Structures are given as structure tokens and as C-alpha cells.
UniProtKB/TrEMBL annotation:
Gene3D superfamilies: Trypsin-like serine proteases. InterPro entries: Peptidase_S1_PA, Peptidase_S1_PA_chymotrypsin, TRYPSIN_HIS. PROSITE patterns: TRYPSIN_HIS (PS00134). Keywords: Signal. This is Trypsin-like peptidase domain-containing protein. Residues 1-32 form the signal peptide.
Length: 262
């Protein structure tokens, strides 16, 4: 199954949450009589990148999504998929997370900024979120991340991008896949890479020092491991970054997400 991780809050407690990866929560699509051999590049383990990290829910050590550090002179900001954040959930971001490399301490997601289209009806075209993060001590996030990633525009077909993210679970490290972007589907930029699994939601599409997409959008980022999507980056995302840098009022995320892959 694809990279989405639906977030559902328990109604009985403000901080209780249940997260299910697509692979566990949804039936596997019917298999063809003859297996199809994919020719797409495959994700493989890579050294941690301090510009990319894992998003954890609560204190149980499970990372549920991925995110990246944005370049900003005035705030500690990360970029992820909107469906990775939920109302009243206690989430933290760990840049450069890995079992085998020293990693930064977790930083709390203090304020989340969402496009009105997502808040209103979870429009997949607005499946991106900017969050201000903090920790009690330590250096600023851009310092840790070597300045972070610059925000770019949606990539044209044929643009080489590297998708870096974390599979849903406990421990582990990042994996990455480099491929040329494919023709958009229904207006959503696409990339063909095997092994983009649950937990990659919010993972950046990196071109040089620029982030041009995140795993998300159509079908929560894709219902199949070998095809992934991104919401189209445009002025609406840049406006979110500006609002987050200014410290304006944050948004309340919706309480549930359905990727439509069932």
C-alpha cells in the first residue's frame, strides 16, 4: 500500500490518538493473475539528512510521518503533509533521526498552519502543512539543519527529485529514492519509486537545496508503493510560510482523514 497514515483522534480523551498505517488498516488491492514487475527505482537506506526527520505521536516511540526543515531566518519551521497533523495530538519532530547516528532531541509542534481548503473539507490539493516547532534548549533548527530547504514551485515532468522519508514504526532510519517526476495525474505531480510506504507521508521531494513537493495530495500520497503524489506547490503554500514566520494565529486541524484507498 502507499504512504498515507490516516490520523484519527479518540473522542474520549484530548490527547488520545489512534494511528493506523495504510498497510494495516486497508485491504490489499486484488492481485493480477500474473505479477507485474516494476521497473521503477527503489527506495534504499541512506545516511541521515539533518534537513529531514521523523514525526512522532506521543511518547511511545512510533514515528508516523516524515517532514523537512524549511529555511527561515525568523522561525523554526517544518513542512509536512496536512493529513499528518491532528487536533489535540502531541507530536514531535526529530531531524536526522536514525538508530545508528546521534539525533537531535524531539521538537514539539507548537503551532500548525493549514490552507483553508484543508480545514474546510480536506481538499487534497491543499494537503500540506507548515508547523512552528520548539524544544526547551539547544540550537535553532536551521542551524542544526545547515540552513534547511528553500521552498520551490511544483516540478515540471522530467525533473529529478530525491524523496527522503521514514517508514511507519519504531526505530530505523531514513530511506530515499531518486527519480524523474512523471506526468501529473489529475493535476498532482507524480513520481514512480518502489518502497515509498506508510510513514512517508510528508516526506520532501528534494531538488538540490529546494523542496518542490511532499508525499501527500491525491489518495493521501498514493495507494500503491510504486506511485506517489504531491499537492501542487503554489502561492498558497508560500502564504502559509509567511503566516507562520509572522507568528500569526495557528489553525485547528480536522480530526480525521480518509485517503480513499479502501
Amino acid at each position: 500500500m502507499g504512504p498515507c497514515v490516516p490520523v484519527r483522534l479518540a473522542a474520549a480523551a484530548m490527547t488520545a490518538a489512534v494511528l493506523t498505517s495504510c498497510g494495516a488498516a486497508y485491504p490489499v488491492p486484488p492481485q493480477a493473475a500474473e505479477p507485474v514487475v516494476s521497473t521503477a527505482p527503489s527506495a534504499h537506506p541512506v545516511a541521515p539528512d539533518p534537513r529531514v526527520g521523523a514525526v512522532f505521536l506521543g511518547a511511545d516511540g512510533v514515528h508516523v510521518c516524515s517532514a523537512s526543515v524549511l529555511s527561515s531566518a525568523v522561525a523554526d519551521l517544518i513542512l509536512t503533509a496536512a493529513h499528518c497533523v491532528a487536533d489535540n495530538a502531541e507530536e514531535t519532530f526529530v531531524p536526522g533521526f536514525s538508530d545508528t547516528h546521534p539525533a537531535e532531541a524531539g521538537r514539539r509542534l507548537d503551532a500548525v498552519y493549514l490552507d483553508p481548503r484543508w480545514v474546510r473539507d480536506q481538499d487534497p490539493a491543499a494537503d500540506f502543512a507548515v508547523a512552528r516547532v520548539s524544544r526547551d534548549d539547544g540550537p535553532a533548527l536551521p542551524t542544526v539543519a545547515g540552513g534547511g530547504l528553500h521552498l520551490g514551485a511544483a516540478p515540471a515532468p522530467g525533473t529529478e527529485v530525491t524523496v527522503v522519508g521514514y517508514g511507519y514504526g519504531v526505530g530505523g532510519g531514513p530511506t530515499a529514492c531518486t527519480a524523474a517526476t512523471a506526468a501529473p495525474r489529475e493535476g498532482f505531480p507524480a513520481v514512480h519509486c518502489d518502497g515509498i510506504v506508510a510513514g512517508f507521508s510528508g516526506a520532501p521531494w528534494i531538488a538540490g537545496s529546494t523542496v518542490v513537493g511532499v508525499i501527500g495530495g491525491l489518495d493521501g500520497g498514493g495507494c500503491l508503493d510504486e506511485v506517489s503524489y504531491s499537492p501542487r506547490f503554489d502561492g498558497a503554500l508560500a502564504a502559509l510560510v509567511a503566516r507562520a514566520e509572522a507568528g500569526g494565529p495557528s489553525d485547528t486541524p480536522p480530526a480525521a482523514f480518509d485517503d480513499g484507498c479502501g
